[in-house]
Specification:
Elements: H1 19-104, H2 111-123, E1 127-134, E2 137-144, H3 156-168, E3 172-175, E4 193-201, E5 204-212, H4 220-264, H5 271-285, H6 290-302, H7 312-315, H8 323-330, H9 332-340, H10 347-354, H11 376-391, H12 402-412, H13 419-433
Antiparallel strand pairs: 1-2, 1-5, 3-4, 4-5
Length: 465
Amino acid sequence: MEPTKRGDKSTARPTHLPADDLDPTLTLLRDAAAAHLTVSEDLLEERDLHQQLERKNEVLRQANGILETVHETLRTEIEQLRTREVLQRERHEALLASIQTMHRALFVGTTAAHILRASLNVTRAERGYYVADEADGMRIRAAVDVPASVGDRPSPFIAAVARRVLDSGNAVHWNSQSPPEGLLPGDGEAFREAVAVPVSLRGGPSGVIFALDKDGEFLDEEVDSLLSVGSEAGVALENAHLREEVQKSYIATIGMLADTLEAKDPYTKGHCDQVSQYARLAAEQLNLSPEDKRVACYTALLHDVGKIGVSDGVLNKPGPLIPEERKLVEAHVRIGYDLLRCIPALEDVADATLHHHEWYDGTGYPDGLAGDAIPVASRIVGVVDAYCAMIDRRSYKEAYPPERARAELLRCAGTQFDPRMVEVVLKAIDLVDGALPGSNIADLGCGILPGIERPRPERPPPLVS
């Protein structure tokens, strides 16, 4: 066989692959293209999803910012509400305490001053007036840190504001930049913030409360509280007026009882008044409360009222008393107690009257009380009563010289008498005995507290001179 020549096409290897070899490759290419397409689509979806998530995240970030802003706003509002609640609670407590104080003031005669201080307390104002509309015109009845005194007439500006409040029955609110329309403040009356409210008595305005110079504006709640004080103040003033009328009736009763005793026992004439005068001064030396002073004064005036129930023959017997007669005389403290305790306002006086013959060492009567167990009014009156009895002439003895009576008090201090009471009573005696004629001390009369007069009815002249 003839060898094949180089380059002979008939005998060369084919340059293309067989169909069987091409099919797997094409399949792989097609699969790769399909996979690429799938991956590209997945990538596009993921990109879209990512963009959507980014947009959602942005929305969430914005929403979170809004929520944080709302949260901060709510937190601030809650804090403000809590602060306002605390202020309202404090204002309510101050108003309640002030109203209670106003009513307690009825018993110490300082109602107007307490009304004003209550008003300043609930509004946090620095100064103020209480102006009363009285029969003879307007008068200042209380003042705090203002250039005026109790009893003065108000300035033209204050009087004009008060008249506007009284005529309208409404509050008037102004400040240094905007005074009440048509009114011109005087020197020193350009208050930073000011409000004036009416005080109603018997259905109509009778006075005006001025709350002046407050840091910041008066809140509506503060003005409402001030109006409440004004309304309650009217009740307090009405009660004070009624109490004054009742007190006059009580004092008339006291005067009648004391006069009855003087008519029965001539040796007691003037004795109770003198005892009450000394007792009042002694109570003031001790700085007792107004109520304790009242009890001491009235006890001194009525300490022997129980002698109404003791026989004249025993009371005025010129010689020594037998034991049975002494028991009758000692019974006067129990009789006096039974008489006085029937008057509600004199219950404390009745108790002090019952014990004014107790001894400091516990050997007195009727109950053998000792030391501080004896009411303070009883201890004062016990000393004063003994001194006045010693310097007076009685049916059974002559009057002692004051020096001897004073010596007896000192000798019996610690046994019959409280040593502290002996000390203050001797000072009271010095004040009265050393007072110049016409002085207030010399004119204390029966010793009833200032501003109250004891009625003294006219007595008919004696039938036999």
